[in-house]
Specification:
By secondary structure, this protein is of the alpha+beta class. The chain has a single domain, classed as Aminopeptidase (3-Layer(aba) Sandwich). 29% of the residues lie in helices and 26% in strands. The strands form 2 sheets. A 4-stranded mixed sheet has the order 3-4-6-5, with helices on one face. The longest helix is centred in the middle third of the chain and has 13 residues. It is globular.
Amino acid sequence: MPLELKTVIPSLVPLFVILASLVYKDKPLKELDYYVMGQICVDKSHRGKGVFRNLYAAHRKHLSTKYNYCINEISSSNLRSLNAHLAVGFEVLHSFVDPTDEWTIVLWDWTR
């Protein structure tokens, strides 16, 4: 989801408010070119076959000419997802708690 659409899904507006307050490598995130990736769910029968990694590789291939960073938020209790994101190249940027869960915001720096 590009920033231009941040108000389209009302439940995501608080996430974009948090993102606007964050800093990455001494630069305010709001000054960087990024998009927010939605959740990836891989069926158990397809896990361990590279589906997750290949989906993100395709994102980087097709979107890195427009964006320098990909951001996602993951439930902090979903260690499988968090570890999969870290293995692809994401890094933890921020954690927060809202009325529904504890969340970890991760960022993948495509400028490296």
